[in-house]
């Protein structure tokens, strides 16, 4: 199918119980999705459980931020909005 970027820290439900992104990995994989798990303050054992559940990769929020900063630097822009504007200027369909 495609790729799902899944945040493991989904917050809390209405009762205050933690929502666990790890539990979503097997049904997503069973439906044919590849899973990239996004983590921030996730203990190593939960990352291991995520991979054991079938996620292809885990990546930290800090890594994502670093990569985005690198892309913006290469594009010589200062924000994601500027990057979108740059793309739009250079990829307008012909009238």
TrEMBL record:
| SUPFAM superfamilies, per database record | C-terminal effector domain of the bipartite response regulators
Q: Which GO terms describe its molecular function?
A: DNA binding
Name this protein carries in UniProt:
DNA-binding NarL/FixJ family response regulator
Question: By its UniProt entry, which InterPro entries does this protein fall under?
Answer: Sig_transdc_resp-reg_C-effctor (IPR016032), WH-like_DNA-bd_sf (IPR036388)
**Keyword DNA-binding appears in the UniProt entry:** yes
| Assigned keywords, A-Z | DNA-binding
